Amino acid sequence: MTVKHPPRSSASGAQDDAPQKLHRGLSERHIQLISLGGAIGTGLFMGAGKTIAVSGTSILITYVVVGFFMYMVMRAMGELLLTRLDYRSFADFVSDYLGPKASFFLGWSYWLSWVVTCIADVVVCGGYVQYWLPDLSPWVPALFTLALLFMFNLLSVKMFGEAEFWFAIIKVIAIVALILTGFWMVVTGWTSPDGVRASLGNLTEPAVFMPHGVVGFFAGFQIAIFSYTGVELLGTMTAETK
Predict the structure, then answer these.
(1) Count of CB atoms within 10 A of residue 135's CB?
(2) Closest by alpha carbon to 121, among 238, 233, 15, 227?
(3) CA 140 – CA 65 distance, rounded (Å)
(4) Taking the CB of residue 155, how many other CB atoms lie within 10 A of it?
(5) Residue 192 to residue 13: CA distance in whole angstroms
């Protein structure tokens, strides 16, 4: 039995008689590391301290809950994208199932969200550079970062994938190093300048687990959700993946 799908419509509402063909230069390792790199970003590095201060060690539960739902969403997106190999992004199957207007709104709102996020990220990059170069104007490293990203996007998709691959590996190494440092601090009984001793007992201590109560626990969700933003970029790479 052959299942017939409706003709796919573009975001503008017109049917694609000749779907655009893109070069499939991204491999499995590229998209895996791009996904990991998307989850490990400024939301995690820059916002982790604030999140822990608000939610305490209950932030572990927050990340588990958000991660579970993100996993389910990504599994569903993958199944939908694989139902038809001519889907170029998640906006295409939204057009099939919800209509071209929904696809149009999704595509442009997603574009706008990343424009805002990109500006936020480059501002954070400027803040990081100012730690070592306090006299440097923050717009200089921000503009340099934008130019670097623009250059990588002008290259072939395979070159872009390679750049993302190695940049993501740097992020993964940094996270692993931070985890190992945390274990070392617990094992050696490291004590902070405030007199707080690193211990696994801090995970269950009431004053540390939820320092601001239930309100603080739920406040951590917004930063946790933002930290996971980026893994859904895999849904925009369908037409360029082997």
Answers:
(1) 5
(2) 227
(3) 38
(4) 12
(5) 60
Q: Does residue 7 carry a pLDDT above 60?
A: no
Q: By three-state DSSP, how is residue 99 classified?
A: coil
pLDDT, tens digit (0-9, with 9 covering 90-100), for 192-208: 888 878 888 777 777 78
Encoded tokens for 79 = 């199944």
Separation between Cα atoms, residue 3 and residue 5, nearest integer Å: 6
Inter-CA distances, 14 with 20, 98, 101, 105, 236, Å? 14, 15, 11, 15, 20
The reported pTM is: 0.70
Question: Token digits for 42?
Answer: 């400024």
Q: What is the pLDDT of residues 74-116, one digit of tens each?
A: 888 888 888 887 787 888 888 888 999 999 998 899 889 888 8
CA triplet 47, 72, 30: central angle to 5 degrees?
70
Taking 3-state DSSP, the helix, strand and coil percentages for the chain, each rounded to the nearest 5, stand at 70, 0, 25
CB neighbours of 174 closer than 8 A, spacing ≥ 6? 40, 45
Asked if residue 129 lies in contact with residue 144, where contact means CB atoms within 8 angstroms, the answer is: no
**Look-up: residue for tokens 């001793």?**
197
Euclidean distance between CA atoms 242 and 224, whole angstroms = 31
Cα–Cα distance for residue pair 200/216, rounded to 1 Å: 21
Please state, for a pLDDT cut of 70, what percent of the chain lies above it. 86
Give the Cα separation of 34 and 98 in Å (integer): 28
Q: Identify the CA nearest to 98 among candidates 82, 111, 80.
A: 80
